[in-house]
Specification:
Helix 7 crosses helix 8 and helix 7 packs antiparallel against helix 11. Helix content is 52%, strand content 15%. By secondary structure, the protein is an alpha/beta fold. Strands 3-2-1-4-5-6-7-8 form an eight-stranded mixed beta sheet, sandwiched between helices. It is elongated. It contains eleven helices and eight strands.
């Protein structure tokens, strides 16, 4: 199976790094295409056996799966050049936020097998939460794409109608989580810790909190209750955060673009 990634910006590069570092695909089976030679050479230095080109048609022609990782406003001109290649034997995967199946189908045709995926930048560390939607795909094709991106973290299939919400929760969610981390680090510095110590403390605490949920398959409140004693520090801190609108602010941020 050969795979091409068209567009080696932040997310395209992250996908390539994740696929290759996880051994999800052989270097020689990946073709990357970008107009910026620096983007190509940076990956080529790290993975010398991958194929590089600045010709999108060349990249797509060789591939069984074409991952389109360009900015949303570039989707139409790029796909117009590739539309004749998008036969029923190829799978087209779009990472462009906000560009729906209807818009893509108008360019490449109604019968093409399409996927929309929404990963986050942690995909370069094989720790992404990737949401996947499909059109014209059979069960085997859906399984193939979900399993491919599951090697880069976790992946799950959702209806296309939820892709906007998925963008906010799982893709933008990286920034939201990091904003909490930054705030907690600032608070820890105010409490007397050095910045580097505070950063390590908060980041590891966040990682541990996430693993409690993922490994125990439990609800956040179950884990919160374990550290919240009557009259204790935790409940006072939680209540102070709520008094300042913590939950309301988080939900408002998630809904801001919907």
């Amino acid at each position: 199976m050969q795979l091409s990634i068209i567009g080696i910006g932040n997310i395209g590069s992250a996908i390539a790094n994740g696929l290759l570092s996880s051994k999800a695909i052989n270097e020689s089976d990946l073709i990357i295409s970008d107009i910026d030679a620096k983007n190509l050479s940076a990956l080529k230095e790290k993975f010398p056996n991958l194929q590089t080109t600045n010709n999108n048609i060349e990249a797509a022609k060789k591939a069984d799966i074409v991952i389109l990782a360009v900015k949303p406003w570039l989707v139409q001109p790029v796909l117009e050049d590739l539309s004749d290649l998008m036969t029923e034997n190829k799978i087209l995967v779009s990472v462009a936020a906000g560009v729906d199946f209807e818009s893509i189908s108008k360019i490449v045709g109604e019968e093409v097998t399409l996927f929309r995926i929404m990963p986050n930048t942690a995909i370069s560390l094989n720790e992404s939460m990737t949401l996947v939607a499909s059109q014209n795909a059979d069960n085997e094709q859906e399984k193939l794409i979900v399993e491919l991106f599951s090697k880069l973290g976790k992946a799950t299939l959702i209806p296309e109608s939820l892709m906007g919400a998925a963008t906010s929760v799982a893709s933008c969610g990286i920034a939201y989580a990091l904003r909490y981390l930054r705030a907690a680090v600032e608070g820890a510095v105010e409490l007397g810790f050095k910045p580097e110590t505070a950063t390590e403390m908060v980041a590891q605490t966040m990682k541990g909190a996430a693993e409690l949920i993922l490994q125990n398959n439990s609800h956040p409140e179950v884990e919160i209750d374990k550290v919240t004693t009557p009259g204790g520090w935790t409940i006072k801190g939680l209540n102070a955060m709520e008094d300042n609108g913590f939950t309301r602010a988080v939900i408002g941020g998630l809904k801001a673009n919907l």
